[in-house]
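A reminder from the course coordinator: this example appears on the midterm review sheet, so study it carefully.

Given structure:
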């Protein structure tokens, strides 16, 4: 699970090559498939649009978003500093 520092966007990259992205209280706001080449990710949404991402130093840069691994200490500290509990994500 990848999550923005504020916990608003949560992206699960599933082992079967599918992704499921939640935004706020809207679960499965975006779903589709993804492929990984090295540290680069290509996304194909079920509605047909495409996006890309790159993992650098353990951080996922997905278009204009910056996402952290949910279990990562960095995100836990950032989320707690923002007044949200990490366990809620």
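Designed residues:
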């Amino acid at each position: 699970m990848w999550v923005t520092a504020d916990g608003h966007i949560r992206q699960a990259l599933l082992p079967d090559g599918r992704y499921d992205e939640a935004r706020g209280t809207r679960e499965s706001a975006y779903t589709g498939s993804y492929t990984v080449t090295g540290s680069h990710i290509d996304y194909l949404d079920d509605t047909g649009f495409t996006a890309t991402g790159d993992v650098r130093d353990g951080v996922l840069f997905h278009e204009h978003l910056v996402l952290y691994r949910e279990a990562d200490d960095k995100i836990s500290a950032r989320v707690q500093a923002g007044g949200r509990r990490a366990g809620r994500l």
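The chain has a mean pLDDT of 86. The beta strands are 2-4, 9-13, 18-23, 26-37, 40-45, 50-56, 59-62, 65-69.
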